[in-house]
């Protein structure tokens, strides 16, 4: 049996074990139920030792002792059956397809009312089975996130293995990150550090200016709030290759949260923080002090920006002297700025001055 078949069989067995537990509860005369961590903001805690978000001790129970609870378990059972069959056939599907597929299920009560419901159920099954959705062969809609840099890798595909160099064998669009980056094997590299970039415009500027070549840099395009696959491959680059990870974003509270998602994990995927988050990542994005020092073009902070910044002052991810100072400065000046605002000082300023000086100060180059 191949490694893929072994992985499929293991994931399938864990799903079958969940369904078997429902059956055993029926046999014992118990009301079927499923217990999992309470998935609310109030039950998310920051693990000070691991520096990631994790679920707390509170749990909730999905029980068939109510019509609503019975419907949830029925939908779980149908979804487990679908996923188990998918793994047996070595097929895959998207989260969107699962929602539409439920329309064909023979019991209308098992059909989903919307994609949010089916998405959440898949996350629930991840938690109770301890199997990631990627191992269920469930894919999100394509994120299109890419990377480009001096890395040679081997990728497992349905057409067999292929070896790719992420500069020599790709165009300027880069190598598209697969849904499950754990199918990738790193073969060789000349990378000195990883630069995760929020926006497509700045990613293109770095590539056009040859930043990846000049500084042996792996440029990872986050595409805004990064997908799980993007965060996973970033963590692997750090953990397995020992590479510093830098996060380059806009200078606003929502971009600071993008950094927080890469480095400490997100509330939505707290059950996977140790798998996705890179606590050692460092911020090289636009700082409020840059807005002042470089006299960057700005936009005024809106009410939602102010509220978000004030919230971040209480956020464990931003509880240090640097962030407190920067956030308070931003509230004081009342401004925010995009990465592309650096172009006001010339198209080459970001790659010839801004990033080299910042990375030198941080001891990265």
UniProtKB/TrEMBL annotation:
Keywords: ATP-binding, DNA-binding, Isomerase, Magnesium, Metal-binding, Nucleotide-binding, Topoisomerase. Residues 141-190 form the Type II DNA topoisomerase VI subunit A all-beta domain. GO terms for biological process: DNA replication; DNA topological change. InterPro entries: Spo11/TopoVI_A (IPR002815), Spo11/TopoVI_A_N (IPR013049), Spo11/TopoVI_A_sf (IPR036078), Topo_VI_alpha (IPR049333), TopoVI_A (IPR004085), TOPRIM_Topo6A/Spo11 (IPR034136), WH-like_DNA-bd_sf (IPR036388). Its EC number is 5.6.2.2. Residues 71-137 form the Spo11/DNA topoisomerase VI subunit A N-terminal domain. It catalyses: ATP-dependent breakage, passage and rejoining of double-stranded DNA. CDD domains: TOPRIM_TopoIIB_SPO (cd00223). Residues 193-359 form the Topoisomerase 6 subunit A/Spo11 TOPRIM domain. It is an enzyme of class 5 (isomerase). It comes from the Archaea. Homodimer. Heterotetramer of two Top6A and two Top6B chains. Belongs to the TOP6A family. NCBIfam families: PRK04342.1-1. This is Type 2 DNA topoisomerase 6 subunit A.
């Amino acid at each position: 049996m191949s490694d893929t078949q072994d992985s499929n069989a293991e994931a399938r067995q864990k799903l079958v074990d969940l369904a078997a537990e429902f059956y055993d509860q029926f046999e014992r005369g118990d009301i079927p139920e499923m217990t999992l961590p309470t998935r609310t903001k109030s039950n998310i805690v920051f693990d000070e030792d691991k520096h990631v978000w994790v679920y707390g001790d509170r749990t909730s129970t999905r029980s068939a002792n109510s019509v609503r609870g019975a419907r949830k378990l029925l939908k779980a059972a149908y979804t487990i059956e679908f996923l188990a069959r998918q793994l047996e056939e070595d097929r895959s599907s998207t989260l969107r397809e699962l929602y539409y597929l439920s329309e064909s299920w023979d019991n209308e009560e098992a059909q989903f009312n919307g994609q949010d419901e089916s998405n959440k159920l898949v996350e629930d099954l991840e938690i109770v089975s301890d199997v990631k959705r990627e191992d269920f062969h469930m894919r999100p809609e394509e994120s299109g996130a890419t990377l480009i840099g001096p890395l040679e890798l081997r990728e497992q595909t349905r057409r067999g293995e292929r070896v790719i160099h992420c500069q020599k064998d790709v165009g300027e669009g880069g190598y598209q990150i697969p849904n499950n980056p754990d199918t990738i094997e790193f073969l060789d590299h000349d990378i000195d550090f990883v630069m995760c970039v929020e926006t497509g415009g700045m990613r293109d500027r770095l590539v056009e200016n040859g930043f990846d070549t000049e500084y042996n840099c792996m440029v990872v395009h986050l595409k805004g709030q990064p997908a799980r696959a993007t965060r996973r491959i970033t963590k692997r680059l750090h953990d397995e290759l020992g590479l510093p990870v830098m996060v380059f974003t806009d200078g606003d509270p929502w971009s600071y949260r993008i950094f927080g998602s890469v480095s400490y994990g997100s509330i939505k995927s707290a059950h996977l923080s140790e798998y996705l988050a890179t606590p050692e990542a460092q911020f090289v994005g636009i700082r409020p002090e840059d807005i002042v020092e470089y006299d960057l073009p700005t936009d005024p902070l809106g009410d939602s920006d102010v509220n978000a910044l004030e919230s971040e002052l209480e956020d464990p991810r931003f509880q240090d002297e640097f962030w407190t100072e920067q956030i308070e400065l931003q509230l004081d000046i009342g401004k925010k700025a995009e990465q592309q605002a650096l172009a006001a000082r010339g198209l080459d300023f970001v790659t010839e001055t801004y990033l080299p000086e910042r990375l030198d100060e941080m001891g990265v180059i």
